[in-house]
Amino acid sequence: MIRRINLLGLAVVVALVGAWQLAVGGGLVSFDYVPAPSSVLHSLVTELRSGQLAAELGHTVSVTLRAWLLALAAGVVAGLALASSPPLRAFFGASVDALRTIPVVALLPIALLIWGPSATSELAVAAVAAVWPVLVSTESGVRAVHPRLAEVAATLRLSRFDAARKIALPAAAPEILVGARIALGFALVVAVVAEMVGNPQGLGYQLVVQQQALNPSGMWAYVVVIGALGVALNAALVAITRLAMPGRRHQLGTAGG
Amino acid sequence: MRSRFAAASRLSRLLCGLAPLAAGLVLWQLTGDPGSPLYPTPSSWWKALERLQQQGVLLPAVRDTMKVFLLSFGLALVLGAAVGLLVGSSARVARAVGPLFEFFRILPAPTIVPVAALVIGPSLTMSVVVVAFAAIWPVLLNTASSVRSIPEVRLATARTLQLPRRARATKVLLPSVVPGIALGASIAAPQCFIVTLVVQMLSSVGGLGQLLLEAQRSFDSPAVFGLLVVIAALGIALNQLISRAERHALRSWGGHA
Fold this sequence. Notes:
The structure holds two protein chains of two kinds.
Chain A: H1 7-25, H2 37-49, H3 52-84, H4 86-101, H5 108-115, H6 119-143, H7 147-155, H8 160-197, H9 202-212, H10 216-244
Helix pairs in contact in A: 2-10, 3-4, 3-6, 3-8, 3-9, 5-6, 6-8, 8-9, 8-10, 9-10
Chain B: H1 2-31, H2 42-54, H3 58-88, H4 91-106, H5 112-119, H6 124-148, H7 152-160, H8 165-202, H9 207-217, H10 221-252
C-alpha cells in the first residue's frame, strides 16, 4: 500500500523554510544566533565532507540500537514473568511502578559516577529508559491474551516455555511492538542527553560543542540531523510493524508521544 | 464500608509491592560502607540532603524546578488545547501542518536546549519556552484527534437545536475534547518534568537538575543519591496527581476517548 504523499504539508514546510531564508538572508530580520537555512545547509555539507557527521551519527545510532535491543530482551522477559505470575506481580508490581516513575535523566549522574563519561554510561541509562515501555506493554499485552488461548496451550500440553513462545508472545506482539516503538524514541532521547551532559561522543556532544563554539549554523545542522534520525528510526519501526503484521494498522496512532 | 475495604486492600497491595524495594534499601544500609565513593548507604543520602538544606540550596532548587514545571505545563496545556482545537476542526489545516508537527513531535526535545540557550539566553523565560515546547505535542495531537472523532450526530444535534456559537463551544465542543486533553496532559506531564531537569542540567538556570549535576561533578555521591530520591518522590507525586486529575476529568465528562 502506498500512502498518498501529503503535498500540502510539504509545501508548508518548504514555504516556511523559504520565508526564513528570505527574512534572514535578505536582512529583513536578524537575530544573533539564528542563521539562514542556506548557511545551516552549508555547515551540514561541511560536516558531512569532513566525515565528522558520519562518525558522530554512527556512534549515536549504534548506542541507541544496542540500548534498545538490550531493553527489548530484558523488557519482554520481565513483562512476561510479571504477567504470568500473580505472586511476582503482587511483590514487584508497585516497586516496578515506583522505579518506572523516576525521571531517567536523573539516573545519568549516577551512571557517570560509576562508569565515568563513557559510552557505557550512555548505553546503561538509555537502556533503562527504553526498558519500561517494553515491560509495561508486554505485561499488559500478555495479560490481555484471551483465556481460550491459554486453554489451547493446556490442551496441547505445551510446556511453560513453549506456551509463552508459541502462544502468549505472538498474541501480544502488536502491543509489544507499540511499546518497542516508544522505547526506541526514549533510547534516542536519553542517548542524546547523555552525550550532551556526559559522554564526549556522538551527535549530542557535537551539538553542545557547536553551541559553545558560538557556531549557530553548525548547531542548527546537528539539530536537523538529530530530528531526521528520530523520524527515520520511527518510520523504520512503523514499516517493520506493517510488514510483520499486515492488516493490523490500528494502534499506530500518534497518541503514544 | 465497601470502599473502605477496597482502600485497605489497595494499601496493603501497595505495601506488599513496595516491600522488595524497601528490603533492598535496608540491606544496602546494613551491609554497605557509608564512606563508599560509588555506593554510599541510604543514611548518608539523608545526611547529604541535610547538609544541602543547611547550605540553603535544597528548597530553592525544589522551588525553581516546580516553578518551571508548573509554568510550562500550564502553557503547554493551554496552547496545546487551543492549537489542537484549530487543527482538529479543519482537515485542510491538519494536512498542512502535519509533517511539520510530526517532525517537532519526534525531535528529541533536549536538542533545542542549546539552541534556546543561545537565542534567548539562560533565563526563566528560556526554560519555560523550551519545556513547554517539549510538552505541547502530546496535548496538541490528542486534542486534535479527539476533535476529529466527535460523532457527527452530536454536531448535527447542536445545529438542529440552533445553539448559538458560544453554547456550541461550551456545551458540545469542550465536553467532547476534555478526555483528549486529559490524555494528552497525562502523557505530557512526565516529559515536562524530564525536560525541566534536562534544561537545568544543561544551562545554569538553577533548580534540582543543576544541583544534581554539580553534585556529580564534585563526586559528592551521597548528595547525588539523595537528590535522586527527592526527584523521584516529586516525579511520583506529580504523576499521581495528574493521573488522578485525568481520571476525574474522564469520569465527569463521560469520556471513552
